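quick one before i forget lol
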Amino acid sequence: MNSTRGQHSTFRALMAPVAICVLCAVPAAGQSSENEKAFPLLPAKKANKLVVNQPTPEYPTLAKMNYIQGNVRLLATVNDSGDVAEAHVVRGHPFLAVAALRAVRRWLFRPAGLRPGPAQFMTYVDVNFSLRAKRIDQIPSDPERDLRRQIRPPEILDCPSSGVDTSLVRMRVLVSSDGQVLDAQPLGDSAPHFEEARRVVASWSFRPARWGALSVPWFLEVDVPVQPWPLSQGAADSGER
């Protein structure tokens, strides 16, 4: 870990205070699945006006040590009490995503009885982590690539056995530094079963990713088995004929 100590020393010498910008954002077309449209998607300007309490995420030390910065986009679901009932990572570096999730899940919006618009809604939230450097020439040209080369990804330790008659949902799982599932998002066209897949993968256990001797949060893509949706009674009767 001598290289890590040297990198930390360079970081202390180069880095000035960290600026974090948090704002609600309008999603790009096609980012939400059919399942995620159960509640109306509130535009950025309207959602931002309803925020009552907006805890600012802490900049992760490991991200600063490795010069990791950038945007984390989350999809938040707000209930009629004004609490964030759910928040899921759409994109962003895993080190930053953990901090953004923890903060946004504690946001508070004006409750339904005191706000205009829908009782429950969804909105996209952008959390921007930005480092200020005194000497730009000493920052690596591609710090994320350099870090990826040093990471040993998470591994599945245990997952419940499934029956033969299952479908597979491709998921991107955010595994914490202690091997727990912090978040899971569907990939590709597997969205129709993703809520069930989230419940299934949440019970799995993982060996966390490693950066040298340290356990760190990281993404892992996995195929999650789910039971296929049953036919309706009408469809079953029709098939019997």
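fyi The helical segments are 2-14, 44-49, 61-65, 94-104, 143-150, 194-201, 233-240.
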